[in-house]
Design brief:
six-stranded parallel β-sheet; three-stranded antiparallel β-sheet; single chain; 375 residues; flat
Length: 375
């Protein structure tokens, strides 16, 4: 009998060895910018372009005329193209770009690609002396929106986040729109770690150095010739916090600056000055308390008033710093140092507590011998 044909054994596929993950290949994207002057988009001497490349160090951007070429990984190329589109849109809607605005837009998109920096930052709060004052970060935008929506707003954050500057811009805007009848700017007269002794001159001469930052900000927002007239008429008042006692502030936009240097009693006194048709903004940095001793009124109020309707606490961070880029890094460095110091204090306290509980665990009081059991 013919033998049955043998069935071929299925050949086992050799296991494939997984090779190294290949990096995302470089992609080149070319497009043309229309409707915007390239010098406005790229900045003088291409400074804005350098800011973009600093935000995306793996990307190369080449510009010739109105033609732009972006080279890098597909993800980064897409991100840079989106950033440039947002900057174009910002320019078309009347925004003034600077290196800070470009860097801020890049951070916004890196944090959340679904946001639109040009729409988020919105219209300027105030345009004065040829300069537009507007929010330059997500935190700042939320802060100024809170001022619109609440009667009392606390702006808490490190130096350089625009807490007081933006509040004063909102105050000047409210006065111009006749939403309030006067602006009151105040701060506690507390020396920053130095004893200046007795200052010469009248009482006004003595307190002016403490209030000088408020006058400087006013000078940037109003015509310098108009400020003395408004001060003389009482439409704008700049005064130390001690002058607020016993007053009721109606139809006023009131800004309390350096609130971390208020005592709890001063903070209560100030908040209870609120009158009809008024708005209050309290700003401060809880990491820069200059009080000689005691609890900061700003620290305490975050616990006392938390959760009350029409009172909002806006917390700004180093991401909202709009001064020199080093300021944000300085703030982060000090924050990290303070956290480490706090952790060491906590560890030391726990070690002491554990050591104190030692004699209690053994049941032997120091200096006493345990009783011997009789045999």
């Amino acid at each position: 009998m013919p033998s049955e044909p043998t069935k071929a054994e299925p050949t086992k596929a050799e296991p494939t060895k997984a090779g190294p993950i290949k990096p995302d290949p470089h992609t080149e994207l070319r497009f043309t910018v229309d409707g915007v002057a390239m010098v406005r988009l790229l900045g003088p001497e291409d400074r804005y372009l350098s800011t973009i490349e600093a935000a995306y160090p793996q990307v190369n951007v080449h510009v010739r005329g109105n033609d732009v070429s972006i080279t890098g990984t597909a993800v980064d190329v897409k991100a840079v193209r989106r950033l440039i589109e947002e900057l174009q849109l910002a320019l078309r809607t009347g925004h003034d770009l600077g290196e800070t605005e470009v860097a801020t837009a890049a951070r916004m998109l890196a944090a959340d690609s679904s946001v639109s920096p040009s729409a988020l930052l919105g219209a300027p709060i105030l345009t004065a002396r040829g300069k537009s004052i507007r929010a330059k970060s997500i935190g700042q935008k939320e802060y100024i929106d809170a001022i619109d929506d609440n009667t009392i707003v606390f702006g808490i954050g490190p130096a350089g986040t625009g807490k007081t500057y933006l509040a004063m811009a909102k105050a000047v805007r409210a006065l111009q729109n006749k939403e309030v009848e006067r602006i009151i700017l105040t701060r506690p007269a507390v020396e920053a770690g130095e004893r200046l002794g007795f200052l010469p001159g009248t009482l006004t001469d003595k307190i002016d150095p403490y209030l000088r930052p408020l006058y400087d900000a006013l000078g940037e927002m109003l015509d310098p010739e108009l400020i003395p007239k408004l001060l003389a008429a009482g439409t704008i008042e700049v005064a130390p916090l001690a002058y607020m006692r016993g007053r009721t502030l109606n139809a006023s936009f009131v800004v309390l600056d350096e609130a971390q240097n208020t005592t709890p009693e001063q903070m209560k006194m100030f908040l209870t000055r609120l009158g009809f048709g008024s708005k209050m903004v309290i700003t401060g940095d809880v990491t820069q308390i200059d009080l000689p001793a005691g609890t900061s009124g700003l620290k305490l109020v975050t616990r006392v008033l938390d959760g009350i309707d029409d009172i909002h606490f806006a917390y700004l961070t180093s991401a909202d710093v709009v001064r020199h880029s080093l300021v944000g890094r300085i703030v982060d460095a000090y924050t990290e140092y303070d956290a480490q110091k706090q952790a060491l204090r906590q560890e030391s306290a726990e070690a002491r507590e554990f050591a104190n509980r030692g004699p209690q665990r053994t049941g032997n009081a120091p200096g006493r011998n345990p009783k011997r059991s009789s045999s």
